[in-house]
């Protein structure tokens, strides 16, 4: 019998980096400008052990679907948001790695040389571009939280915020050959979006996006047109769906085809029509992470995709 060959694209990585925190807490430094975050009583809710288990189960489910997971432990108490590694580094086809400048001071401690060394050891890394020195000038660009990348059409979608500096964005796009597409977005209360990836996700053949959050009609239409020109089916999300992290999802390449990793909360708020559109291209993989979502991020934030060629 001939082996079934599933289509692969550079948009959907087959491997990810995850961080399992041993002393997880909700980060007080990010509460002011993260409207998705909930301040929790870390001690009474036993959140550290709950978050540890949520990461463990997510890792197991991803591996069951053929995703290679590089799991790193965080045993410190200094990095409450370490479970979200996609903000401090990203990887790109051709062997490129970027390291980013972070806005919250305590998040800068999340950068780990052992992760970069693992990438160099197991994947073909040609260069590492380190933008973290821009922090000295109060210039920030928080990785694939600040940017949602169309790896196929080479477009970097980015919401204006204090986490996305236009100078750093232009520099990244010049180095990594992306076209920047910047816009303003806010929730129904007029609160600006802090990270682009809470309202937008790009798969190989579709894009989930909170168009209702882009108030400038002309800019909204330009973004839709750009996505459609790149062959994407645009799937609009409502304010309520964005608030339930439906935009914070990541397409991955599994052994049996592409999957869309998202939280169970996010999957539950999608309509059947939206699910049907997604599943024309990727199977939904809901993951239970209610504790971690209190920190204002969801599944996409937990997964740093590896877009590098393996050494073996």
UniProtKB/TrEMBL annotation:
UniProt-listed SUPFAM superfamilies: Pentein
Organism domain of life: Bacteria
Coiled-coil residue windows: none
Pfam family, one: DDAH_eukar
PANTHER family: AMIDINOTRANSFERASE
Protein name: Arginine deiminase-related protein
Organism: Sessilibacter corallicola
